[in-house]
TrEMBL record:
It comes from Oceanisphaera profunda. Belongs to the ABC transporter superfamily. The lineage of its organism: Bacteria, Pseudomonadati, Pseudomonadota, Gammaproteobacteria, Aeromonadales. It is a peripheral membrane protein. One of its GO terms (biological process) is transmembrane transport. This is Peptide ABC transporter ATP-binding protein. It is found in: Cell inner membrane. InterPro entries: AAA+_ATPase, ABC_transp_ATP-bind, ABC_transporter-like_ATP-bd, P-loop_NTPase. GO terms for cellular component: plasma membrane. It holds the Pfam family ABC_tran. Transmembrane segments: none annotated. Keywords: ATP-binding, Cell inner membrane, Cell membrane, Membrane, Nucleotide-binding, Transport. Residues 17-262 form the ABC transporter domain. It comes from the Bacteria. GO terms for molecular function: ATP binding; ATP hydrolysis activity.
Length: 276
């Protein structure tokens, strides 16, 4: 089993997120009546505390997105368990999961329904998961728009009327509106241009300070990871090859694959915190 070093917890003994022996395989096809399966990521375990950020990096096809999707309940694990605040989250229990953990997808240009205005997009999770009446939902949507740096007027806009950066703010607002403890983001920052990326990173950091959020970020930019993550997991071919505090992993990788991966990322290094 790939085991990430457990981190000391702050205050409570129970980590906010505990991932225990989690793995995911896919049956790709049957050959001569025998199933052929592909393991996206092999059994792995880690914990994450409140207010902390875990980055997941790895080469293409290493299992990053599948891990993010399994955490967010988009697909069930093949084995293993996820605990939030000590409570086991069952694969089908979407209602409980989405009040504790929400996901932001890679491309805000495709993740928002172009036929709904932003107000309706943000009200949807409230209608599905809370007993708030229409006036209360409206108020909460306006508060959440402000929280992510948008205006009350944006309620009436459609996704195609706003910029990619503003769309990512809407996606963040949709993730925040049920007040989750954890946000999982699958390369939600990588595709934004540098100035917008800086704004979204600053927004994520300020929301983390203000709300005590924890983030699990699939990332492909070493500058971003160094700046915002406390812990780092490097995946290679579905296996954890490095795991631990970000500074330690970046300065002293223990495996050949980890070193090679980081060297590749160094070559692609794009972002520095003071870039505006
Ligand atoms: N629905 C699926 N059916 C079959 N195989 C899949 C499926 N989803 C992912 N895989 C396989 O699982 C492995 C991990 O895929 P995944 O998308 O999680 O990798 P990744 O690290 O996110 O890659 P990238 O950085 O290119 O997005 C790959 O070999 C992929 O082909």
């Amino acid at each position: 089993m790939d085991q990430v070093q457990p981190k000391p917890t702050t205050g409570s003994q129970v980590p906010l997120l505990k991932v225990d022996n989690l793995s995911r395989s896919f049956v790709t096809h049957s050959r001569f009546f025998r199933k052929v399966s592909k393991t996206a990521f092999h059994p792995l375990s880690f914990t994450l505390d409140r207010g902390q950020t875990l980055a997941i990096m790895g080469d293409s096809g290493s299992g990053k997105s599948t891990l993010a999707k399994v955490l967010a309940g988009v697909m069930p694990p093949t084995q293993g368990n996820i605990y939030i605040d000590g409570e086991k989250i069952e694969p089908g229990d979407d209602k409980k999961r989405c009040q504790l953990l929400r996901m932001i997808f890679q491309d805000p240009n495709t993740s928002l329904n172009p036929r709904s205005n932003i107000g309706k997009i943000l009200e949807m999770p409230l209608s599905l998961n809370t007993n708030l009446d229409a006036a209360q939902r409206h108020e909460l949507v306006l508060d959440t728009l402000r929280m992510v740096g948008l205006l009350p007027d944006h309620y009436h806009f459609y996704p195609q009327m706003i910029s990619t950066g503003q769309k990512q703010r809407v996606a963040l607002a949709r993730a925040l509106i049920l007040s989750p403890n954890i946000i999982v983001a699958d390369e939600a920052i990588s595709n934004l241009d540098i100035s917008v990326r800086s704004q979204i990173i600053n927004l994520l950091l300020s929301l983390q300070t203000r709300l005590g959020l924890s983030y699990v970020l699939v990332a492909n930019d070493l500058g971003v990871v160094r700046h915002i993550s406390d812990h780092l997991i490097l995946l290679h071919d579905g296996h954890v090859v490095e795991a631990g505090p970000t500074k330690k992993v970046l300065s002293n990788p223990q495996s050949e694959q980890g070193l090679r991966l980081l060297q590749n990322y160094h070559n692609e290094y794009r972002w520095r915190p003071n870039e505006k």
